[in-house]
Amino acid sequence: MKQMDTEKLLMIPGPTVVPTRVLNVMALPIIGHRTKDFGELTEDTVDKMKQVFQTKNESYIVTGSGTAVMDMAIANTVDKGDKVLNIVNGAFGDRFYKISSVYKADAIKLENEWGDLADPNAVKEILDENEDIKAVTIVHNETSSGAKNPIEEIGNVVKDYNALYIVDTISSLGGDYVHVDKFNIDICVTGSQKCIAAPPGLSAISVSEKAFEVVNKTETKSFYLDLKAYKKSWDKNKETPYTPSVSLTYGLNEALEMVLEEGLEKRFERHEKLAKATRAGLEAMGMELFAKEKARSVTVTSAKYPEGVDDKKFRGLLAEKYNIRVAGGQADLTGKIFRVGHMGSAKEYHVLGTLAAIELAFEELGINADGGVSAAKEMLLK
Ligand SMILES: Cc1ncc(COP(=O)(O)O)c(C=O)c1O
């Protein structure tokens, strides 16, 4: 294999640093995926995933990235011409709209400014005017902008209508408070590589009884992502219909074990603390945060570049000189913002080191960015 620099600290909003414990179990030999041992491992992994989802709903692990389960959610519930409400305030909300369009849904886009949050009253108004809406999609944590949506409040609205509530928690589950059952989420999707801190390649989906009723009446439009096939294999043998990634399942199981060992509450508190420290640090350096104050994510922080800073130069310096990777902006925000991920297994020293490197990189680019680390330290000591 080509030698690569695998030592860089990943402070991007996924994939994230994978703990050694998780990496180690993935070196175990491959076992047959239709064996008793693997069946028990899968059952245990699903059980842990349900604890993290905080749901009693059936849940499945899918070999495929987060987009696979976003696709699965729509393919199995929406037929051609069905009305879908896609709440969009970033690139991933828009992805649900694009997927809905692929399946030829009659998709209504409820757009909000990137960096702001969706308004539950606006959702209610649209549902009142369109009683035939079959599904409402939303992204909890908009990784593209660093803003998070009020999914509990919107769930409280959607529950009074026939529509299914489909929520992407790909960059929040295991880092920010999500309670699938309390939030009335019918289909919740997530990925392995963000707050859960496993490698990329697996995803998970929880499906309520109400959603299954719709799935059973929906035309099968995807072979690999057919939920009916997943349910059948699970109900019969606690298996997946097709060959799962055995090594990644080892890793996901161990990563979920670590999430539960830390405890969900403590994990949410850690993410919130790191987010506060990152925000305080960047603001003390003179940066303007991109997401509106009321909408700020606890897993990724976005900041506007000061005038004249070149995104490629800045992030290049961070990566090549200081060995830290942060992300740039997406779509219209390319070159305008950068994003720091502080999710998964991130700790104080990752955030402090990143802020110190950001200070140094900005100074090298002629911008006085003193004081970021001190402000973050103060916040961490609170
Ligand atoms: C909120 C959100 N949704 C969906 C995705 C897509 O997931 P994947 O790249 O694993 O397919 C991402 C990835 O960054 C994300 O952050």
Q: TL;DR of this structure?
A:
The protein has 382 residues and is an alpha/beta fold. It has 13 helices and 15 strands. The protein has 2 domains: 20-261, 3-Layer(aba) Sandwich (Aspartate Aminotransferase, domain 2); 264-381, Aspartate Aminotransferase, domain 1.
What report would you give on this structure?
Keywords: Aminotransferase, Pyridoxal phosphate, Transferase. It comes from Methanococcus vannielii (strain ATCC 35089 / DSM 1224 / JCM 13029 / OCM 148 / SB). One of its GO terms (biological process) is glycine biosynthetic process, by transamination of glyoxylate. Its cofactor is pyridoxal 5'-phosphate. This is Serine--pyruvate transaminase. The chain has about 375 residues and is of the alpha/beta class. It has 2 domains: about 20-260, Aspartate Aminotransferase, domain 2 (3-Layer(aba) Sandwich); about 265-380, Aspartate Aminotransferase, domain 1, CATH 3.90.1150.10. It contains 13 helices and 15 strands. The protein has helices at about 20-25, 35-55, 65-75, 90-100, 120-130, 150-160, 210-215, 225-235, 245-260, 265-285, 310-320, 350-365, 370-380, and strands at about 10, 60-65, 85-90, 105-110, 135-140, 140, 145-150, 165-170, 185-190, 200-205, 290, 300-305, 325, 325-330, 335-340. The strands form 4 sheets. Strands 2-10-9-8-5-3-4 form a 7-stranded mixed β-sheet, with helices on both faces. A 4-stranded antiparallel β-sheet has the order 11-12-15-14, covered by helices on one side. The protein has a two-stranded parallel ribbon with strand order 1-13. A hairpin with a 4-residue loop joins β6 (about 140) and β7 (about 145-150). α10 (about 265-285) packs parallel to α12 and α10 (about 265-285) packs antiparallel against α13 (about 370-380). The radius of gyration is 21 Å and the shape is globular. The N and C termini lie far apart (about 45 Å). Bound molecules: pyridoxal-5'-phosphate (PLP). Pyridoxal-5'-phosphate binds next to α3.
